[in-house]
Amino acid sequence: MFDLSTHALGDTRERDRQLEHHRLLTESRYGQIGHPSRARRPVALVLAALSRGSAAAVRRLDDCVADELSRSLAPTK
Asked: How far apart are CA 39 and CA 27, in angstroms?
């Protein structure tokens, strides 16, 4: 004898498998899992600011070293 609840449960499981398969296909097409992180842009902005700040510091240090080098290589009297 066939149990109707077992049949309904089997149908539900099959639909769940199909939905999960569809979700995985969709995510692989877009190259991401779920929604993009809301923190990604602020973190990128902070890292960009740090990068610009460190580049400015390196330029200042480079100028100082160049000045000291030119003074040390200047001919002495």
From this structure: 20
